[in-house]
Design a protein that fits this description.
The protein is α/β, with parallel strands linked by helices. It is built from 8 helices and 7 strands. Strands 3-2-1-4-5-6-7 form a 7-stranded parallel β-sheet, sandwiched between helices. Helix 1 links the parallel strand 1 and strand 2.
Amino acid sequence: MKPIGETTVLITGASRGIGAAIAARFAREGYRIVIHYAKSHEQANEVARRCMSYGSEVMTISADLRSTEQLQRMKEKLEAEGFAPDILVNNAGTAYYGLFTDVTEADWDECLAINLKGAFLCSQLFAPYMIRQRYGRIINISSVWGISGASCEVMYSAAKGGVNAFTKALAKELAPSGITVNAVAPGAVDTDMIEHLDTEERHALQEEIPLGRLGTPEEVASLVYYLALPESGYVTGQVISPNGGWQA
């Protein structure tokens, strides 16, 4: 295992929300950070500046997670710069809210490509490096709906359910190589994924949660950080849901 200052964390979709909070959490602890983003260049740079303010070495990189070619180029660039990830956080995702009967085939393909295929491709690309050094962490950001399912979020629930199954299977395959694979499946977190809710809907949602409030990106980031620690080496194949008791 490398010293913290030489350990690299790659967070996909890290330009905002939970991904940005995860990047900042690791940066505060002195890890080297790779901030992946799709199109939000300025937001990614803002997150990078925040991470650098903690003294962390930071790199930003853009790639379409649906494209094998772009991801291969990303991998080559990271390796050339000495930023091959020891810890991979598959955070990038997209939600869809609407009636199942209104979902198009294109919607379905897009949702599964970003939420599930992206995690598969990134894990497949970076696992060999972890296998060679016989150490690594893969942490997939899922959703409580991947566990229990949600009305009007059938497609998103299916994608995140796939992430959970992917996590459990990959954990068994990579365990002999000293690599742990876990998923964090948050409940309602205060990010732009719930910005479509009006004040009344937001209040009603909070009343459903036993703790009486939404989660914060920082709380999710703390759980991700824990799962990445060397001390967490006996935790693998788990889907952990920080949800305030909402779906306990």
